[in-house]
Amino acid sequence: MLLNLSCMKKRIFSAVLILFMSLAVASAQRMNVIFETDMGNDVDDALAIDMLYKYHRSRKIDFMAVMLNKEGEYPQRFIDLLNRWYGCKRIPIGVLSRKNNTSKAGVKYFTEYVCSLKDEKGRPLYKQLPQGYDDWKDAVKLYRELLSKAKDSSVTIISVGFSTNLAALMESAGDEFSSLNGRELVAKKVNRLVVMAGHMENPNYREFNVKEDVSSCQKVYNEWPTPIYTSPFELGLRILYPARSIKEDFSWTKHHPVVDAYKYYLPNMDDRPTWDLTAVLYAIDPGQMFNISPAGRIQVKEKGETVFTPDASGSHFYIYTTPEQRKQILDYFVNMITKKP
Question: Which residues contact residue 89 at a Cβ distance below 8 angstroms, ignoring those fewer than 6 apart?
Fold first, then answer.
């Protein structure tokens, strides 16, 4: 009996040890991700963050934070609402580090609409913090705190809005989190930056994310110390998320904040380009669905035009796709976004 008990204890210990090691390996393989978004200016941000929550819940990534590069009360309220709805309420939120008057503050977008929805009893339809929205952390402070704790070269930043916070981060000085200045901290802790920005096929095009804060975007492309991978305007424009899917593929739930956002933003239920989704997919799970340009340099001109010049010593790349890849990507998006979180 004692021998059997001893053997049983050894088996239990071995099983626990194997489980612990498996979890440790899985954790080590998870990608650390920070998401920069101008949530509220276009509904593709909402579709993109849906994917990130699901990657996080499936332990493919560690969703470290959401950084908002858009002013106003409702973008952060909407993110807080999503954090709670997707079961990720511990993901921190950083708010715009310095004012950017071109970030469309105060305009009634889908973020306010969804946050204001009520149920049949007049209560908020979606759980959210009742107050305290002035207490969110400054994005640069939150960046510095998170990066200082991260392993070297372990963080991927996905930026699908303005470059305001990223430029401010590089300009930051040493503080209680790290003696390194911002550029040094990025160089030490960030592996790569994946950006939705610009137009690589039309050097005269002024893409929204670039032209709304040209100086910050110039600073990022001129000074960012890690490789930058750009998902340009023309890529997402050629892959349209089908409104039919929004109407038909969510019967598994009565209420869905991203579906409500889509329907409010596009009342005619138009298909929508997948600009921000392509940046997220390339960063997390590209498979064989993308092609990468040769190394080069992207110049942001005075009015926001972007020009790519091949250069073997450059650290800038852009992604592009074939028609066959675009079909794969669209199927992936619809399958991913319509799944239960």
Answer: 80, 83
- Alpha carbons 255 and 239: distance in angstroms, whole number: 26
User: What is this structure's pTM?
Assistant: 0.90
Confidence tier at 4 by pLDDT (50, 70, 90): low
What single letter denotes the amino acid at residue 190?
A: V
CB 273 within 8 A of CB 239: yes
> Using CA atoms, how far apart are residues 137 and 50, in angstroms rounded to an integer?
22
What does the pLDDT look like over 182-204, one tens digit per residue? 999 999 999 999 999 999 999 99
267-to-110, 271, 276 alpha-carbon distances in Å: 11, 11, 20
Q: What distance in Å separates the CA atoms of residue 277 and residue 300, rounded to the nearest whole number?
A: 23
The answer to whether 156 touches 33, Cβ cutoff 8 Å, is yes
Contact criterion met (CB below 8 Å) for 73 and 81: no
Instruction: Specify the pairing of strand 31-37 against strand 155-159.
Output: parallel
* Interatomic CA distance for residues 191 and 211, integer angstroms: 26
**What is the separation of C-alpha 134 from the centre of its chain, rounded to a whole number of angstroms?**
22
Asked whether the beta carbons of 229 and 308 are under 8 A apart, the reply is: no
